[in-house]
Design goal:
It contains nine helices and four strands. The protein has about 230 residues and is of the alpha+beta class. The chain folds into two domains: about 70 residues, Glutaredoxin, CATH 3.40.30.10; about 140 residues, Glutathione S-transferase Yfyf (Class Pi), Chain A, domain 2 (Up-down Bundle), CATH 1.20.1050.10. The model has no long low-confidence stretch (mean pLDDT about 95). The protein binds glutathione.
């Protein structure tokens, strides 16, 4: 039996859940209690303390990229990796762009800009029972604020961050022109990684406005949703 340990608000959770649903792999979901991570409760599932992590018959796999590779070995069809080596390499690079670059845009804009955080706050408050909405707000602003400041994006003027995102969306839109998927001729890890980060980013009103200036992204999102839904059947 497979159990996915996760934070429901995480874009990496969305990536993995879509992969499980695409492949039709039955699994259980176990929401991680944020307050218990530091106590070592989940150390055997995720030694890094980051989630999602997966337990498959006693074997722990953590990091969404490794989880998707594990699922591919377990259930090769439908494939998550293009068979053509160049397209597989492209899928790898796009996945990493989503996980390591777009992620910090969603963290910055959704969680460290007060006017956007309010829209995401109910979901975060639900994951911290016993903590008031106001305290969650302060914790997220402070914690994520420090993280994105250390990473660098949090120190950029907001207008510059928004123009970065406009550029990223334009690049994504151009990658999708005349094609159904980001790499290869079927859905791949690239599509799953990008849609997870995009949905988190779209909590930010500036990202929603940027999306309106694109031509191909919304139809691609609907295409991904149709074959690899976030929620299980
Ligand atoms: N590279 C990891 C990133 C996972 C990650 O950063 N997860 C966040 C939630 S979105 C987390 O667990 N944060 C808790 C922490 O950093 O302590 C992956 O792809 O799974």
């Amino acid at each position: 039996m497979i159990t996915l340990y996760h934070f429901p608000t995480s874009p990496f959770t969305e990536k993995v859940r879509r992969a499980l649903n695409y492949k039709g792999i039955s699994h259980e979901l176990e929401e991680v209690v944020r307050a218990d991570v530091g106590s070592g409760r989940y150390a055997d599932v995720s030694p890094t303390g980051k989630f999602p992590a997966l337990m498959d018959d006693g074997n722990a796999v953590w990091d969404s990229t490794d989880i998707l590779l594990h699922l591919e070995r377990l259930c090769p069809s439908p494939a998550l990796f293009p068979s053509d080596p160049r397209e597989a390499a492209l899928a790898h690079v796009i996945e990493d762009w989503a996980d390591e670059s777009l992620y910090f845009y969603e963290m910055t804009m959704r969680l460290s800009w007060e006017h956007n955080l309010d829209e995401a706050l109910d979901e975060f408050t639900a994951t911290l029972p016993g903590v008031s909405r106001d305290d969650v707000r302060k914790m997220v602003l402070q914690g994520v604020g420090q993280l994105v400041a250390a990473q660098g994006l949090g120190r950029k003027p907001q207008e510059q961050v928004v123009s970065d995102v406009v550029r990223h969306f334009r690049a994504l839109d151009d990658m999708l022109a005349g094609r159904d998927w980001l790499a290869g001729d079927a859905l791949s890890v690239a599509d799953l990684a990008v849609i997870g980060q995009l949905n988190a980013l779209l909590y930010a009103r500036e990202a929603r406005a940027a999306l309106e200036d694109t031509s191909n992204i919304k139809t691609w999102m609907a295409r991904v949703d149709a074959v690899a839904p976030k929620e299980g059947a």
